[in-house]
Amino acid sequence: MKYIDIHGHINFPEYDADREEVIKRAHDAGVGIIVVGTDLESSKKCVELAEKHEEMWAIVGMHPTEATPIVEVHSSKRVDLRKSMSERVAFDVEAFQTLAMNPKVVAIGECGLDFFHSKLEDVAHQKEVFIKHIEVANSVNKPLMLHVRNSHSSTNAYQEALAILKDHAKVPANFHFFAGKMQDMKDVFDAGYSISFTGVVTFAHHYDELVRSAPLEKIMTETDCPFVAPLSHRGKRNEPVFVIEIVNEIAKIRGGTSGESVEMITEQLLENAVKFFGLEK
Which of 40, 58, 88, 269 would give a disulfide with 50, using CB separation of 3.0 to 4.6 Å? Predict the structure, then answer.
């Protein structure tokens, strides 16, 4: 294993027709895979996949937008995509606790706060579910995989997530698909946590300063597949093997900072994930 995609969703239906081929392409290229659940059923699927394949691991949890009614944002309109407020979903602590104890499960999530796709009145429920994830992670001593997304309001989801972690977490945490500001990134690092970058860095150059400024030992790489394919595949389904392009882009952006070579960056990014998740290479 030379690379690792620390956050992807090959458990999703988008891969039902060719999932094994997708996995083989990744493994043939030396890419390990961590597959991430977004609710109880998809988390079970993650564990099943991880148990079947070498150099594949699972993360189990409930995405914050699965816990609350979702709104889709179309310019100034917010459209409720669920039928009623009664569709808030409870977090089944016992079921997730059981999954979390599986040796192939390396983290709890993706969990956190999503202010972009949610209604303001649902934030309290999201926070409750987030804290329950943290409690499960603490109990099994496994890290957290966080989904944190801001809205266009003044409320900062990153700062609110950090406050919750400070009060409750006893384990490491990674802010996946990091899209915060420079100060948010600094605050994440100061709190002892890490971030990961997706294929967005290959086409959205406002990330360049973040990529250059981050301590190399504090970052990891992910595809978040089937979403946000890198530039060479933009608009198409993403897959784990494309994480190689993300690693190479990070090396390009950092441009030999402090004598960093592509080989050194590649090795360090893998080592970061091995250490964070407690993997065996």
Answer: 58
The angle at the Cα of 254, spanning 252 to 260, to the nearest 5 degrees, equals 95
Determine contact, residues 105/57, Cβ cutoff 8 Å.
yes
Q: Can you say whether the dihedral through the CA atoms of 114, 119, 121, 125 is positive or negative?
A: negative
- Is beta strand 194-197 parallel, antiparallel or unpaired with respect to 71-74? unpaired
The pTM of the whole model exceeds 0.85: yes
Q: pLDDT tens, 11-63?
A: 999 999 999 999 999 999 999 999 999 999 999 999 999 999 999 999 999 99
Contacts of 97 by beta carbon, 8 Å cutoff, 6+ apart: 136, 139, 140
Rounded Cα gap, residues 239 and 203, in angstroms: 17
Residue recorded with tokens 């009623």: 84
Contact by Cβ (8 Å): 191, 239: no
CATH (residue range 3-277): 3.20.20.140
What's the gap between Cα 194 and its chain centre? 11
* CB atoms near residue 41 (< 10 Å): 10
